[in-house]
Known about the structure:
By secondary structure, the protein is α+β, with helices and mostly antiparallel strands. The protein has 2 domains: about 5-80 and about 160-235 and about 320-380, FAD/NAD(P)-binding domain; about 90-155 and about 235-315, 2-Layer Sandwich (D-Amino Acid Oxidase, Chain A, domain 2), CATH 3.30.9.10. Helices cover about 25% and strands about 25% of the residues. It is elongated and about 65 Å long.
Amino acid sequence: MSYDAIVIGGGISGCAAAYYLSSAGHSVALIEKDAPAAHASGFAFGSLHTQFQPPSSGPPIEWFRAESIDLHHQLANSLPEVSGVDYHFKEKAGLVLAFDEADAAHLKPSGVAGFLRSEWPEDRHDVRWLAYGELSHIEARVSTDVIGALYLGGMTEISPEGVTKALWTASERNGAVMVNAEVTAINVVDGMVTGVTTDDGSISSGIVVLAAGPWSQSVLQRGASTSNLRLPVAPLKGEILRYDLGDEPPLPVSIWWGSDYASSKPNGLLHAGTTHTDAGFDEEPSAEGREGIRRSAERALPFLANKRIAEQTACLRPVTPDGLPIIGKMPGARGLVAATGAGPLGIELGPAIGKLAAEIALHQSETSSRYSGFSPARFA
């Protein structure tokens, strides 16, 4: 078998790469041993922080995040119809809670260390500081230990599993094919990619996009011709609890405090998370994760103490030493493009990572310019 391009990995970045490559008219094989969204992209929270979009002069991760959120909005105008998958893209305001004056000083729009910058376009957000009495009119079940909250209008929530599957379904309609197999080697001859070997045979291509999340380095190590290539990406375990609210009404807004959050989802469950644990490649939910999330969630929303935890999930997010994604040409292997390392921002950054990887593979973008900070060459 031979294709114009091979994508390894069925998460949101891989499915986005397949979508943009196939939309450009190229034959694409997506290699995934499980199914699209079978790992982190199927278990993430799914909030797009539209209010945190800074000007393009900000740090690389921030303007890239803004680019990707814009892509999410563009895709939402066409992808559900093209794919036939409704992934519940909807506007939903947020509350960022303050438990003390230090929190409040950080969160208030006038705060020196606050989220906001005066040069952000005013029409992009509705941001206000609310004292407890004001925020309780929005959600009265917030703990009375809270002294106030930053209100963020215009945030967006999606189904991460849904958007990943929508990207893949649209790719299939463009002619892309799924290969359910495990990659045993990426083949490189005389410094050029020639395809991959799987446990079900070989596939030829001059382009390979490696989007295997935290498993990307291990894929490289399986092949004799790529075992010397370095892609320093490691797993960061994240867990989420899903509460059954019974007869209680859902939360009308997303609620955030510190690095934790809670939000009601279209399936009727309230999702609360998350952990940031170095647990190797252990994808099993843990008792420690459950207890930590439960304590934190019930501190912010005491009514959850009486609610049943319907499900606990865990996933592994790919993180890098400098906190930036890895997107670009792999040194020493022409035609091999890395697309991984988004960490906890995987759903937000997924479309932009996939699109940029596709453009680099097709020689339409160069990591030597605007995106040089993401190049895998920085670890060479």
